[in-house]
Write a structure and sequence with these properties.
This protein is an alpha/beta fold. It has two domains: 152 residues, no CATH class; 265 residues, no CATH class. The protein contains three helices and 28 strands. β3 and β4 form a beta hairpin. The longest helix is centred in the N-terminal third of the chain and has 66 residues.
Length: 479
C-alpha cells in the first residue's frame, strides 16, 4: 500500500530546489565576475601595458637610426625632424593593428675629449586600453609590495604624467590634458655613445697576412709609459696590458706567417685553429661591418695657407684649438717635409686634409694632436713619420674612401719605426722589412712580413673620430 505525503512536504522540496539554484547562480555569477575582471586586466590592460613599451622602443629605434646617419649618411640625418633648443623631435607616428603611437627626441648632451657627440634619446609609446574602464588588478610581485606601476600608467580621462610632471618631466607647464580614449603610456631613455675606430690592433675587411716570422703583434698602455716587450713575463707589472694585440678579419682569409699574436683572433667563416703562435682565444664566427669612410662635415673653415706641402713646410697654428674645433689646413699636394708645431707650447689640435697622395715626411712635435685626412694613397718609409710624443693617438691618418669603389693603398717601407693610427677601410695596407709600429689600424687588407711588428696601444680604445654609434644605456622612466 502507498504512503501519502502531506502537501506541506511538497512545498519544502520546491523551496530547497530554489535555494540550491540561487546558491549555484550566486557562485556562478561571482566566478563570472572575477573571470571578466581578470580577462579585462589580462587581455586589455596587460596587453596595452606591453604594447606601449613596444611602441616606445620603436620610437627609440627610429631616433637611433637617425643618430647613426650623422656618421654614415650625414646629409640625410634627421630629415623631417624638428630642431629646437639643441633637440631633434619627430612627429607622433601611429602604427600597428591596435593604433599604437610613438614619438621620440634626440639631443646632444656631451662631447668627449675627441669632440664626438653623445646623444640622449627619450621615447614615448602609447597603446589604447580596450574593454571596461576597470583597473582592479596590478602587477604585484610579492607580499607587502606595492605593485601599482601598471595602474599608475593607465589614463582613462587625463594624461597623468603631464598633470603631475609636465610634458618634459621637469615639473613645468603641468596641465590637465584629456585623452581621447583610455590608454597606457610608457617612456624610456637611451644613451647613444660614439663607437671609436680603434678597438683592436688590426681590423681588416678582406684579408690578413702576417705577422712576419720574426715579428709580433702585442699590446701595451701608453698611460703607463713607453712600449717595451713583456708579453712572456707574467711577473712584469704591465703584463696584463700586453695580451690585447687582437686581430679581427671580416672574411675567412686569415693567412698567418710564423710570428706570434699576443691577443685574440676572430674571422668571419675562417678555419683558424689553435697554435703556439696565437696566445688568445679564436672565434671563426664574428662578422662585423666597416662602412666606407667619408670626410666629416663638421670641420671648420680652412686656413689661407699653406695650400701645398712642398719642400720644407712649417705649420704653427694661430690658436691651440680643441678636439671639437681644431685648426684646419686644406692642401692639394703632400710631397714635402711637414713640421707641425704647438701653439705657445700648449696642447694643440690640428687637422690636415690633403686631396692628393702622401709621399712626403711629417714631424709632429710634442703637445700636438694631428689628424690627417687623405684622398689618395700613402707611400712612405717608416722613418719619414716622426711622432715626437710617442703616443699613437697624437697622430691619426684617415683614408677617405673613393666614391667609385676603388681601393686605396698604404705602403710602409723600411727602415724606421713610429707611433700612429690608421683608419682606412678602403685601403690595402702593406709593410715589409723591419718597421716597428705602435698604434692600431683599420683597413681593407693587411700584409706584414719579415720582422715587421705591431704594438697596439690600449689607450686608443676611446680615441679617434666616431665611426658609428651604439646604445650603452637603457632605462625606463618609472614615474
Amino acid at each position: 500500500m502507498g504512503i501519502r505525503r502531506k502537501k506541506s512536504e511538497r512545498g519544502n522540496v520546491l523551496l530547497c530546489v530554489l535555494c540550491t539554484i540561487l546558491i549555484v547562480s550566486l557562485i556562478g555569477a561571482n566566478v563570472l565576475f572575477n573571470s571578466v575582471t581578470r580577462f579585462n586586466a589580462a587581455s586589455s590592460q596587460v596587453r596595452a601595458w606591453k604594447e606601449s613599451l613596444y611602441a616606445a622602443e620603436a620610437g627609440g629605434d627610429l631616433a637611433y637610426a637617425e643618430i647613426r646617419k650623422t656618421i654614415l649618411s650625414p646629409s640625410s640625418a634627421f630629415t623631417g625632424w624638428t630642431y629646437t633648443g639643441g633637440t631633434y623631435s619627430d612627429s607622433p607616428l601611429t602604427f600597428g593593428h591596435d593604433n599604437m603611437i610613438t614619438s621620440a627626441t634626440a639631443g646632444i648632451f656631451y662631447y668627449d675629449f675627441n669632440g664626438n657627440a653623445w646623444y640622449r634619446i627619450r621615447a614615448k609609446g602609447t597603446a589604447p586600453v580596450l574593454g571596461l574602464k576597470r583597473a582592479t588588478m596590478d602587477d604585484r610581485m610579492g607580499v607587502g609590495t606595492r605593485g601599482d606601476s601598471l595602474l599608475r600608467k593607465i589614463d582613462f580621462n587625463y594624461d597623468h604624467f603631464i598633470a603631475t610632471y609636465g610634458p618634459n618631466g621637469d615639473g613645468t607647464s603641468k596641465a590637465l590634458v584629456p585623452v581621447a580614449n583610455p590608454q597606457v603610456t610608457r617612456r624610456i631613455e637611451l644613451i647613444s655613445a660614439p663607437v671609436t675606430p680603434f678597438e683592436a690592433a688590426v681590423k681588416c675587411i678582406s684579408s690578413f697576412t702576417g705577422p712576419g716570422s720574426a715579428g709580433v703583434i702585442d699590446s701595451y698602455n701608453s698611460n703607463n709609459g713607453p712600449y717595451y716587450f713583456c708579453a712572456n713575463n707574467p711577473a712584469d707589472p704591465h703584463y696584463a696590458d700586453s695580451h690585447s694585440g687582437s686581430v679581427a678579419v671580416d672574411s675567412p682569409n686569415f693567412n698567418p706567417f710564423n710570428g706570434t699574436i699576443y691577443g685574440d683572433v676572430s674571422t668571419n667563416g675562417g678555419n683558424v685553429k689553435p697554435s703556439s703562435q696565437i696566445v688568445g682565444t679564436i672565434d671563426n664566427n664574428v662578422p662585423f661591418t666597416v662602412p666606407p669612410f667619408t670626410l666629416p662635415t663638421n670641420l671648420p673653415l680652412p686656413q689661407n695657407s699653406p695650400t701645398k706641402i712642398n719642400g720644407n713646410t712649417n705649420i704653427t697654428p694661430p690658436v691651440n684649438g680643441t678636439a671639437k674645433n681644431p685648426t684646419l689646413y686644406l692642401v692639394t699636394s703632400f710631397n714635402g717635409n711637414l713640421t707641425v708645431n704647438p701653439y705657445n707650447n700648449a696642447l694643440t689640435y690640428v687637422v690636415i686634409h690633403t686631396t692628393s697622395d702622401i709621399t712626403g715626411t711629417v714631424d709632429v712635435k710634442a703637445n700636438v694632436h694631428l689628424v690627417i685626412y687623405f684622398d689618395g694613397n700613402m707611400t712612405v718609409k717608416a722613418r719619414d713619420i716622426n711622432n715626437e710624443s710617442g703616443v699613437a693617438g697624437n697622430l691619426q691618418f684617415y683614408g677617405i674612401s673613393p666614391t667609385d669603389g676603388s681601393s686605396q693603398s698604404i705602403t710602409i717601407s723600411p727602415p724606421g719605426s713610429f707611433a700612429a693610427t690608421f683608419y682606412a677601410p678602403s685601403a690595402d695596407y702593406h709593410m715589409n722589412g723591419n718597421p716597428d709600429i705602435t698604434g692600431a689600424i683599420v683597413c681593407k687588407t693587411f700584409y706584414g712580413n719579415g720582422n715587421t711588428s705591431w704594438h697596439y696601444d690600449r689607450a686608443l680604445n676611446n680615441e679617434g673620430d666616431a665611426v658609428d654609434y651604439r646604445i650603452t644605456s637603457y632605462v625606463e622612466d618609472i614615474r
